[in-house]
# Entry
Amino acid sequence: MDIFYMRKAFYIIGLLFLLASCRSYYDVVQSYHQHLDQNDFKGAENQLKKSRFLKKKRNQILLCLELGKTMHLQADYDSSNYYLNKADLLMDEKTVVGDVSASVLVNEAMTRYKGEDFERVLIHYYKALNYLYLNQPDEALVEAKRINLRLNELSDKQIFSGRRYKSDALAQILMGWVYEKQNNYNDAFIAYRNAIELYTKNDSTEYMGAAIPEQLKIDLINAADKSGFYPERDEYCRRFNMPFESVRDTSRSSLVFIWENGLAPIKQQEDIFLFLVKGAGGVLTFTDKSGTINIPVILPDDKKDQASKLSDFNTIRVSFPKYVDVPVYYTNLRITHDSSTYVPQLAENVAYIARVNLKERFLKEMTYTTSRIVLRKLAEAEIKKQNELAGALFDVAGLVVEKADTRNWQSLPSQISYTRIPLTPNSTNTLNLQLNSMNGPSKTDAIRVDAKSRLQFLDYHTLQHLPPLIVR
# Structure
C-alpha cells in the first residue's frame, strides 16, 4: 500500500512541477508587445498566431481578445469583429468540470481564462467602432447598448455589495454618437445627459477616475438645441457657464477624434501570509498579520472531522494577482486644424477601472484560493499518513505551484479621450498633431481626413509606454 501511495504522490508532484511556471503573462508575450510598441501590427498578429502559450485551449478567449484588437489596429474591421464575437460567445459558456478540477488541484492560472468585467465591456466598445467604420450604425447602436446590459448582468451575479462599476459613461457617450450618426438628436440628448449624470453622481466631479469632458458638455447643449429642447439647452448653458453662441455647432461635417493612449495595467503576482485561527463546527478563519483581512473557510461535511489534521501548520502563503501600472509615454495631444487647436479630454480611465474591478472581487478570490490551499493541505495530510516522504514532497510541490493568474487583455489602452473637430465638407482635411511626453515635445504627425459625411469617427492609437512598475 505504501508503494502505491508513494507512486501516486510522485506522479502528482511531477505533474504539478510540469505545470508550474514563475513567468507572468506579460513576460510570456514580450515579443508581441515589442511589435505593438513599434506600430508593427501585422508582426504583432503573427506573434499571437504562433504563440504556443496562446494556442492552449484555456487561453482561447485571451487569444481572440488580442487578435480582435490587433485586427482593429490594422483597420480589418470584419476580422476584428469575428474574433471579438468569438471571445464574447466563449465568455458566456458555463464553467466546465476540468476548470474546477484544475483550479482545486493547481491554481486559477491553469483554468480557462474568462475575462475581467471591464474587458467584457470593451469588447462591445470595439465592435461598435468597427461597425461605425463599416457604415453599419444600427449594429453599432446594438453593441453600445449591450455595454450597460452586460454590466447589469454582471452586477446581478455580484455576491458582495458595494460594487462601483455598474454603469459606463463612455457607453452612454458612444450611444450619443451613434444616435447623432442616425440624425436622432432626441435620443442623443438623453444618452449624453445619462453620461453627465454618471460623472456627477453623488455630487462628485468625476466618475471612475475621469472628470466630465468639456466636449460632452458642448455635445449635450447642441443635442438639446437640435432636438428643440430650448429650456434644457439654456439650463445646461447656465450650469456649465457656457453661453450658447460660444459653443453652438454650425459645422456641416465634423469628426469625433478618439485618442487611445498607452497600455492598461498588467497583472503581477503578490504573496501574502495568512495565519490560522481555529474555530468550531468545521469553520476555520485565516487572518493577515495586521488583522485587516479575515478569511473564513467552511470545510465540506465530509472533511470537517479532518480539521485536526491541520494542526501541524498555522501559516499559509496565498498568491493573488495585483495590477501594476504601465506609465504612459505621451501625456498630451494637441490637434491643429484651420488655425484652431483641439485637445482630446479623458472620457474613460481604463487603468482606474481595471484596479477597481479587481479590488471588488478581492475578498471572493482570497476566500476561494484559501479554501483551495486548505483542501490541498488535507490531501497532503492523507498522503503523509501513508508515507512521510511522499507527504513532504507533496507539500513542497504545493509551494511551487501556488501561483496567481496574471493573464489579462494587454493591448487595451490606459486612457480613452476624445474631442470633436469641424471639417470642411467634400474635401480633404489635414489634422496636424503634436504629441508631448513628460520631457516636452516628442512627436508630430499629420492625418488627412476626407469629409464624406456629416459625422465621422477616427480612433488614434499611441501604444508606446514606459516600463511597467513591476517589483522583481
Summary: The chain has a mean pLDDT of 85.
